[in-house]
Amino acid sequence: MIIDTHTHVVNSDRMKHPLDPNARGWSLEVSNNVEDLIVEMDNAGVACATLVQPATTYGVDNSYQCDSANLFSPRTVAVGILDPAAPDAADKLSYWVKERGMHGVRLLSESEPDDSVGDSLWRRAEQLEIPISIAGGGNPQKVDRIRTMAARHPNVIVAPDHFAGWNGAEDKAAMTTALEELAKLPNVYLRISSTSLGPYMELAAAEKDLFNRVIDAFTPRRVMWGSNFPGTRDGGYSGLVQLAQTALSWLSEDDRNWIMGQTAAKLWPMLKASNAS
User: Fold this and answer.
1) What is the pLDDT of residues 93-109, one digit of tens each?
2) 270 CB burial (10 A radius; 0-12, 13-18, 19+)
3) 102-107 and 76-82 beta bridge pairing
4) What strands lie across the sheet with 3-7, from one edge to the other?
5) I need a surface site. Which of 13, 49, 197, 230 has the fewest CB within 10 A?
6) Number of domains the chain contains
C-alpha cells in the first residue's frame, strides 16, 4: 500500500478559501482541490495520503486541509501548521486535533527548533500523541538543534520534512553526519520527498553515497515518502510516484515498501485504503 506523506490541497475557490495575505510561490499559480487529488491518487495507485498544510498558502489556518481530510477519511489525514512560539500554541493544537480532526503538526517559527518557548506545544503533542514535522533547512546546526529538542521530548515522534533540506546543504558531508547523529534517536523519523529524489538522480556517485548513508542510518522503517505535489509537479503526480520508485531502486523491494507506505502506516494507523465504512 502506497501512502503519500507530503501532499497539499489548495482550493480553486479563492473566495470560499482565501489565501493568506503572505501567500507566495507555487500556491499563487496552481490549485489542487482535494477531489482532484483523489483522482490523481487513484490513477497513480496511491492508497492514502497526509494532507500537509503548505507553509506558503493558508498560514496557520488549517481549515481546508482538515475539512478535506475528514471528507475522504480514512484515506486521508491532515497535518497542519502552528507557530510554537505563539502564547496559545498548545491550546491551538488541542483545538485543531480535538475539534477539527488534525493528526499531525508542522512547526513554522522564527525561533530556533530547540527554543524552550516551544516546549508547551511539544508537551501537548505528547499528550495528544501527535507527530511533529519540522524543517531542517539544509543546515547541520539546525539539525543539531532538532536533535536537542527531540531528545528533550523522547515520547514525541519527530519527522523532518524534505530530507531535512539535505539537497540544499552547502556541506553535504556535514549534513550527512548531522543526520546520522539525529537518527540515533528512536523517536525521529525522516520524510523524503520529490524535492530530494529529483536532484538525487543527478548527483555524482560520491554524493549519492552520502545520501544513501542517511537512509541507512534511519533504516527504511523510519523513512517515509512524500510527493510534495503540487508544489512539485514536473511529470505529473504519477510521474512523481515513478520517480520515487526509480530513485530508490538501489534498495530491496521490502525496504522500498517500508519507505513508500509501511512506515507511514505505523505513524498513522487510522489510514485505510478505502473510504468505505
Assistant:
1) 999 999 999 999 999 87
2) exposed
3) parallel
4) 3-7, 48-52, 76-82, 102-107, 132-133
5) 13
6) 1
pLDDT at 277 over 50: no
C-alpha cell at 121: 506545544
Q: Sign of the C-alpha dihedral, residues 103, 108, 113, 116?
A: negative
Give the count of alpha carbons within 13 A of 168, CB side only. Answer: 11
Instruction: Identify the CATH number of the domain in which residue 90 sits.
Output: 3.20.20.140
Compute the distance between CA of residue 244 and CA of residue 143 in angstroms, rounded to an integer. 24
pLDDT in tens, 36-68: 999 999 999 999 999 999 888 999 999 999 999
Instruction: Report yes or no on 276 lying in a domain.
Output: no
26 in a structural domain:
yes
Domain assignment of residue 277, yes or no: no
Q: Are 179 and 212 in contact (CB under 8 A)?
A: no
pLDDT at position 149 is 95
Q: Give the separation between CA 172 and CA 158, rounded to whole angstroms.
A: 22
pLDDT interval class at 132 (50, 70, 90): very high
**Interatomic CA distance for residues 170 and 48, integer angstroms:** 34
